[in-house]
């Protein structure tokens, strides 16, 4: 029975992908047949499509570089925001397939460090993000989508350190111009209702200040 393409055959597929350049240099008119028991040409083509960066990954690459940010954080609705500043360094990884962001700054009077990794899954047609920082010991995993204007919306569950319960957080990101963007975070307040808990505004280091008005805050859910 021919072995089908499953997770167990990932290693074999990777070896075959590495062998592609060698096949191209062999001057044979027909591609070499897959090893007996290996994936079919159709499966190899599907895998190649799944692993190839596309326009969504080009969009992620726009966040690469060095940025400064200002942060306004609200502990509860109607309270004055706590303001802080910091830096973010973004770079692509593995041939532009992922975006990795390293953050440094202050939050609530404490030194803050965090790391986020964002991907676009060609197979699932979805953006994925993981986040962890020195303000906790867990990770936040979220999924989202971006529209043609570059507005991205993510949502995912995590545990609230204050209550120990699982809660849903979401974020909305929008570009101001090529050198600045804005992200807003939403989560449950003391009454359990969602409110805007954070607004971060980013400016690319070395870029001239934008003269374009920042996008308006996204209305909170009722």
Tell me briefly what this model is:
With 222 residues, the chain is mainly beta. 15% of the residues lie in helices and 44% in strands.
Query: Strand order across the biggest sheet?
Result: 1-2-3-4-5-6-7-8-9-10
Helix content: 10-25%
Number of domains: 2
Radius of gyration: 22 Å
Task: Count all strands and give the number.
Answer: 10
* Low-pLDDT ranges: 1-29, 213-222
Shape: globular
Q: Beta-strand level of the residues, as a percent range?
A: 35-45%
Largest beta-sheet details: 10 strands, antiparallel, barrel
CATH H-level superfamily title of the largest domain? Calycin beta-barrel core domain
- Overall mean pLDDT stands at 83
Helix run count:
3
**SSE string:** HHHEEEEEEEEEE
Q: Would you identify the CATH architecture of the largest domain? A: Beta Barrel
Any idea of the CATH class of the largest domain? Mainly Beta
In whole angstroms, how far apart are the ends? 57 Å
The CATH topology name of the largest domain reads Lipocalin
> What class, by secondary structure content?
mainly beta
Describe this structure in words.
There is one protein chain. This protein has three helices and ten strands. With 222 residues, it is mainly beta. The chain folds into two domains: 7-52, no CATH class; 57-204, Lipocalin (Beta Barrel). The radius of gyration is 22 Å and the shape is globular. The N and C termini lie far apart (57 Å). Mean pLDDT is 83; it is low at 1-29 and 213-222.
């Amino acid at each position: 029975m021919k072995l089908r393409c499953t997770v167990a055959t990932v290693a074999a597929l990777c070896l075959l992908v590495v062998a592609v350049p060698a096949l191209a240099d062999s001057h044979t008119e027909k591609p070499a047949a897959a090893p007996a028991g290996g994936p079919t040409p159709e499966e190899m083509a599907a895998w190649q499509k799944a692993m190839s960066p596309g326009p969504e990954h080009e969009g992620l690459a726009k966040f690469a570089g060095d940025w400064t940010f200002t942060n306004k954080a609200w502990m509860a609705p109607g309270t004055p925001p706590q303001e802080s500043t910091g830096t973010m360094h973004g770079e692509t990884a593995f041939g532009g397939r992922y975006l990795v962001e390293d953050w440094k700054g202050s939050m609530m009077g404490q030194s803050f460090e965090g790391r986020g990794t964002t991907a676009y899954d060609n197979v699932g047609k979805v953006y994925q993000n993981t986040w962890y920082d020195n303000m906790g010991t867990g990770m936040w995993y979220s999924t989202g989508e971006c529209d043609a204007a570059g507005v991205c919306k993510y949502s995912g569950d995590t545990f609230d350190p204050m209550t120990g319960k699982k809660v849903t957080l979401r974020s909305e990101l929008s570009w101001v111009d090529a050198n600045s963007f804005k992200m807003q975070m939403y989560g449950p307040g003391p009454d359990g209702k969602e409110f805007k808990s954070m607004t971060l505004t980013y400016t690319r280091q070395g870029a001239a200040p934008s003269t374009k008005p920042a996008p308006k805050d996204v209305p909170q859910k009722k």
